[in-house]
Design goal:
Blueprint: H1 7-14, E1 24-25, E2 30-33, E3 36-37, E4 45-47, E5 50-54, H2 55-62, E6 65-69, E7 74-78, E8 83-87, E9 92-96, E10 101-106, E11 112-114, E12 117-121, H3 122-128, E13 132-136, E14 141-145, H4 156-159, H5 161-169, H6 171-179, E15 185-191, E16 196-201, H7 207-218, E17 225-231, E18 235-242, E19 272-275, E20 288-291, E21 304-310, H8 312-320, E22 323-326, E23 331-335, E24 341-346
Length: 347
């Protein structure tokens, strides 16, 4: 997996030409922002009934910062709080807040190149940033209602070019993730009390973490271990201690998360499974945790690698169990009644 160069600088500021393009220039079309006409860099074009304007015009209209990557033909647009990544000829754009993927935007007409200008769908991109877009057929006018950001955003989009380049390579992986139809590994945590927590894991996004989890499960490493740290409305953690509270060792793996230089944008939402670790970024080994509630604070700091697809009621039950300080482990938040993993099966 490619490490992200200059990640710290990027994170701090955020918290082949197409052959024949069937697009038609429209000199009579007017674009207005909050009632005032906007001067276009080049005339808009109509593609399959959709209005496309130059990338630079999007920047002028929305007050966003933009960057263009000639190698991937990738587009980065930011309003200072979210980033949108799109590519020539690709029908979906990804939206992130620099530490997690927030969603995607299907575009009926993807960006194209016309006469050496990058043309992007006006409505689709405008609405991504919260603008209201209307169309008056009689006057052939696009009306945009939007309050542009007050801050000077110059240069921010360029700082996230590495994100764009890696998302370009992982386009199919992240599209499958947001559409919930991508490549997954299915597994289930079978509990001693008969409960089953079914999981789907994402090997195309966090390959090291998934491979490690699968290897340990298939070797029966997890059999008889417990959920030893439980915090209601946060997470349940297990996979490292037995019923006698002794620690079970496993080899450490690389931490696949942003702070460690890896573009893993999975949000730590309720039901997501992620790798536990110590202070060392590459100290994760066998222990994992499942989110009982959403946590933005963990995004970019821990390697999320899958989610619960069935059996959240068992996660809830574990999260609700009473906990105490355990003298043997010298640890807090240990369940009074042990929550035992019978085995983990990879399907």
């Amino acid at each position: 997996m490619k490490r992200i160069t200059a990640f710290a600088a990027a994170l701090s500021v955020a918290a082949s030409v197409l052959t024949a393009v069937p697009a038609m220039a429209d000199d009579d079309l007017t674009v207005r922002l909050n009632g005032s006409a906007v001067t276009m860099q080049v005339p808009p074009v109509i593609e399959n009934g959709r209005t496309l304007v130059s990338l630079r015009s999007i920047s002028d209209v929305l007050g966003c910062d933009i960057s263009w990557d000639p190698d991937t033909r990738g587009i980065t647009v930011t309003d200072g709080s979210e980033l949108t990544f799109a590519w020539i000829g690709k029908e979906n754009a990804f939206v992130t807040d620099a530490v997690k993927i927030c969603g995607y935007a299907p575009m009926e007409v993807p960006p194209v190149i016309v006469n050496d200008y990058t043309m992007v769908p006006l409505r689709a991109l405008s609405e991504l940033f919260g603008a209201e877009v209307g169309w008056d057929d009689a006057s052939r006018t696009v009306d945009i209602t939007y309050t542009p950001p007050a801050a000077d955003l110059t240069g921010i989009a360029e700082k996230f070019k590495t994100y764009e380049q890696i998302l370009f390579k992982k386009y199919d992986a992240y599209l499958g993730y947001v559409l919930k139809n991508g490549n997954v590994v299915n597994a289930e945590i079978q509990l001693e009390n008969g409960g089953v927590i079914e999981l789907e894991l994402y090997p195309d996004i966090a390959p090291v973490s998934v491979a490690n989890f699968v290897k340990l499960a298939e070797s029966h490493f997890y059999d008889g271990l417990i959920f030893h740290r439980v915090i209601k409305d946060f997470m349940i953690q297990g996979g490292g201690f037995g019923t006698d509270y002794s620690h079970k060792d496993a080899s450490a793996i690389t931490g696949e998360f942003l702070a460690n230089g890896y573009l893993n944008l999975i949000h730590h939402a309720r039901g997501v499974i992620s790798m536990a670790r110590a202070q060392d970024y590459d100290s994760g080994s066998s222990q994992f945790f499942i989110m009982h509630a959403d946590s933005d604070a963990l995004d970019g700091q821990y390697a999320a690698f899958g989610r619960v697809t069935s059996g959240m009621e068992y996660v809830d039950a574990i999260a609700e169990t009473p906990t105490e300080h355990n003298d043997t482990m010298d640890a807090d938040d240990v369940p009074v009644q042990q929550q035992v993993i019978k085995t983990i099966v990879v399907r």
